[in-house]
Recover the amino acids of this structure.
């Protein structure tokens, strides 16, 4: 079944981790922590290989990063995306 978040198709919501490549030490903690196959080790830093596997509104891996290299959009932005997607479809 197609994944949705508050009635909006998952692929319409750009929620996933962002990694600061200048900070990342490739320690692997984020990849080890997340069960959803989101991350893949790159040559110089961790990569977000499967962004759409990230669970919308989850930000738990950020706390696992020892040097705070992982960030997410803020939750107000998330609600804005949901509202925009719904109004495009005329469902609000
Ligand atoms: S936010 Fe949650 S689902 Fe997304 S990558 Fe991090 S731990 Fe995995
Ligand atoms: S936990 Fe942080 S430092 Fe470690 S691989 Fe992930 S992003 Fe890089």
């Amino acid at each position: 079944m197609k994944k949705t978040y508050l009635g909006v198709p998952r692929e319409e919501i750009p929620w996933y981790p962002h990694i600061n490549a200048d900070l990342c030490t490739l320690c692997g903690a984020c990849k080890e922590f997340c069960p959803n196959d989101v991350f893949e080790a790159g040559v110089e830093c961790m990569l977000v290989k499967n962004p759409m596997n990230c669970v919308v509104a989850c930000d738990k891996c950020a706390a696992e990063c020892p040097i705070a290299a992982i960030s997410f959009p803020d939750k107000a932005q998330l609600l804005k995306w949901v509202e925009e997607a719904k109004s495009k479809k005329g469902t609000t």
